[in-house]
Design brief:
Oligomer: single chain
Shape: elongated
Strand order of the largest sheet: 1-7-6
Largest sheet: 3 strands, mixed
Strand content: 25-35%
Helix content: 25-40%
Radius of gyration: 27 Å
Length: 202
């Protein structure tokens, strides 16, 4: 039972999480800073991020989200970075039926046919445990249209290799093979040649 008096049967949640997997993989499950007032789909103008993983863990829905560099996304990241307690709230539509649950009392049970759309960010979620539990910031790697030799020169060796690997992993693999072969040839020419010369001098 959540703070709004609704009861979500696990079977319905699990079915909806499974139904969203295709949209999650396609990058269509977008989040907002609060539920849209019109109750409809996500607006690109209000989007904070995109859900990249959604699973069931016992009776809980657990997910991961990529926060976008939008105005709303930057505001959300700043709040989390500053220590604000940000929660998550499901956005969906369907019908409920009043029922009495033992040990709980009267609740509005969500009925089959419920459609889960996404999750949005709120300050006071109706489910106390529905909160952001971790926040990780990763160094962005320039994409192909912005990666230049000048940019590469400003990076340390590790960042440079990471950028090249994201840009063209096959090219980096080829470069590594080429360098290894070149070093091997140089080694054999330099040291093996001297060894042969010493043997001949005897």
């Amino acid at each position: 039972r959540n703070g709004n008096g609704r009861w979500y049967p696990r079977a319905i949640l699990a079915q909806q999480v499974e139904a969203l997997q295709e949209d999650v993989k396609a990058g269509r499950v977008l989040t907002e800073a609060y539920h849209p007032e019109d109750g409809g789909g996500s607006s690109t103008l209000r989007t904070t991020g995109m859900i990249t993983k959604l699973t069931m863990s016992n009776d809980l829905v657990v997910g991961e989200e990529l926060i976008f560099d939008t105005a709303a996304g930057r505001d959300l990241a700043a709040l989390v970075r500053g220590g604000a307690a940000i929660g998550n709230s499901s956005r969906g539509y369907g019908v409920t039926r009043p029922v009495t649950k033992a040990g709980v009392g009267e609740v509005y049970e969500v009925q089959p046919g419920f459609k889960l759309v996404t999750f949005d960010h709120v300050i006071r979620p109706s489910v106390p445990s529905a909160e952001v539990t971790s926040f990780t910031e990763k160094e962005e790697v320039p994409m192909a249209d912005t990666l230049t030799w000048a940019a590469l020169e400003q990076m340390d060796q590790k960042a440079r290799l990471t950028a090249l690997e994201k840009l063209d992993p096959d090219m980096l693999k080829s470069l590594r093979t080429s360098v290894a072969e070149s070093l091997k040839a140089e080694f054999e020419k330099t040291f093996m040649g001297k060894a042969d010369a010493k043997i001949e001098s005897f």
